Structure formats: C-alpha cells, structure tokens
Amino acid sequence: MLLVKELQPNSPVPEITLEVTSKEEPRKYANDKGSGTVCNCAGKDEAGQEVRVTLWNEQCSQVEEGDTLKIGNGWCSEFRGQIQISAGKKGTLEVMKK
Q: pTM of the entire structure?
C-alpha cells in the first residue's frame, strides 16, 4: 500500500487508501476528447499527508467528505505543479462510507 510521500508524477498507483478531507463542487467540462463532469477533493493517508484526488463523472456523486477511498491500478500526474491522483481509465475506485 502506497503512502502520499511515495507518489511520483506520471507513474502508476497500484493501491492507495485515503480519507476525503474536503471536496470541491463538481464542474462540467468539454474538449476534443468528449465531455462530462469532474471534481477535485483532498485525501489524506494514514500518515496524515494530503494529496489532490480527481474524480470523474459518476465518481463525483459517489464520494463525500469523510469517506474513505481505495484506489487501485490508478495513476499519478502533476497539474500546475501539484501532484494529483485518480483511478484513471483502467483503475478502480472503491468508496467506503464513514
């Protein structure tokens, strides 16, 4: 199980568990690859370190502040100098309600 301090941009995230500490409002997007809904939240690991988590489409309504997320086969990227993770296209996002 990875910790936030072990995350590297542009690399896979085999498995990480995070507690959602805050969640932004979902917003619509549209680009040449399609359209949908995206929102960001912050999640902290068992060591208390936080990372930005990007949620896509139906994930936006599944996750609430205080939930615990388990991301498997996800992806770590860097956006505007900040590391962020998501389940990506091939990964899984499991929500364990508080």
A: 0.92
